[in-house]
Amino acid sequence: MTTQEHLILGIESSCDETAAAIVAGGKRILSSVVASQVEIHRKYGGVVPELASREHLRQIVPVVREACEQAGVSLRDLDAIAVTRGPGLIGALLVGMTYGKVLALALGKPLIGVNHLEGHVHAVLLEAHAAGRRPALPAMCLIVSGGHTVIYRVTTEAVNGAEAFSYARIGGTRDDAAGEAYDKVARMLALGYPGGPVIDRLAEHGNPRAIRFGQPKIKGNPYDFSFSGLKTAVLYHVKRNPQLQPEIEARQQAIERGERGADALRALSTPATLDLIASFQRAAVENLVGRTLEAAAHYGARTVFVSGGVAANSELRRLFEAEAAPLGMEVYLPSRALSTDNAAMIAAAGHARLLAGERADASLNAEANLPLA
Ligand code: KG4
Ligand code: ZN
Fold it and tell me: What local confidence, expressed as pLDDT, does residue 159 receive?
């Protein structure tokens, strides 16, 4: 094994996924195990922090064991343990952090703290490197999920012969994250939880120009986002159109019966609802793509990264591809497995930090609001 082939165990527990992964050389995923809690939080329509912590506690040991088994690696073979420090739910973060620390101490291995958002950036790099591609930096990275909507400019410099990454925050949401808006709109329209995947599927069957929601007016930073106005506009639209109520109730009952698939919910949706869904999605996606590409152009980035659960959105992917090419920009959209929360991205980010000489000690702590830059 060469020095480039360090074996890193990544541990991630910042929100509602307990994840562990083994990554070799920062780019070869030997295993990536994700225990999702979506079934537990579904009936509440969002993540309940206390339930999340309790579930992480139940899952962390078997998930790490499974990651080692799938990779055919024993804990003694590891070169380092990388663990998410934040941002996230503090009780959830503490579970992964404590376990990572104890493992590192017991095994005498280096411990590396990773910012969850940095992990999302490395998810893109990891997949690109695994495919033999080397994205040109600086890159403009949009991280868009249920918890985050933020743009970072990503650069590297050589430190001790290794690449050290730096991040500058270019803009972010002033209120709701984009995924949160999807989930709230899905709740208003009785489309189940999480809302993104169903809205994505149903939007294809509506007219995205039926309702003009317009773009939010934000003073100050032109690369900031706002999604609460769009969410409220959908709410007003539903209130002004009481004829939508019977189908909302019918879908709610279907969901309670366990019929939450996109096809079942579509069969219970009129064209008026499908148009509303398509128009909401168009407004959200145009906003995300427009601002990210404007930021890239303004800061001279020819590479755009998109990461986080909402990066799975088909219209977002189409629009990024269509609009970036004429600007001479290359867009990296990772697979769904890597764009949603996972621990391979934490291991990859930890690998870069390991090469740059970073080591944490026992004072490393979880931080709910840990900034990346
Ligand atoms: O990254 P993720 O799995 O978890 C965090 O929030 O950290 O992202 C989940 C979010 C949810 O809000 C979900 O509704 C949204 O991503 N999402 C989507 C799609 N798939 C998931 N939003 C829009 N279109 C999708 N296809
Ligand atoms: Zn995330």
Answer: 83
Alpha carbons 126 and 29: distance in angstroms, whole number = 9
Distance 201 CA to ligand 2 centre (A): 22
**Containing H/E element for 154?**
strand 149-159
CA nearest ligand 1 atom 22, residue: 196
Directed axis angle between helix 178-188 and helix 271-298, to 10°? 170
Could you say which of 3.90.280.10, 3.30.420.40, 3.60.15.10, 3.90.180.10 is the CATH number of the domain covering 178-301?
Answer: 3.30.420.40
As given in the structure block, the two tokens for residue 290 are 């427009």
Q: What Å distances lie between residue 300 and 139, 225, 348, 354, CA to CA?
A: 9, 20, 26, 29
Task: Take atom 6 of ligand 1 and give the residue whose Cα is closest.
Answer: 146
Closest CA to ligand 1's atom 10: 146
Q: State the pTM of this model.
A: 0.96
Q: Where are the domains of the chain?
A: 7-135+336-355, 178-301
% the chain with pLDDT above 70: 99
Query: Is the shortest distance between the CB of 200 and ligand 1 below 6 Å?
Result: yes
Ligand 1 site, residue 195, Cβ cutoff 6 A: yes
Map residue 72 onto helix, strand or coil: coil
CATH class of 7-135+336-355: alpha beta
3 pLDDT higher than 60: no
What is the percentage of the chain residues whose pLDDT exceeds 90? Answer: 94
Ligand in closest contact with the CA of 15? 1
**Burial of 178 from C-beta contacts in 10 A (0-12 / 13-18 / 19+):** buried
Residue 175 tokens read as: 């209120």
Segment 298-313 mean pLDDT? 97
By three-state DSSP, how is residue 143 classified? strand
Query: What tokens were used for 293?
Result: 């590409």
Measured from the CB, is residue 192 less than 6 Å from ligand 1? no
Q: Which atom of ligand 1 is nearest to the CA of 15?
A: 7
Structure tokens at 212: 């003009």
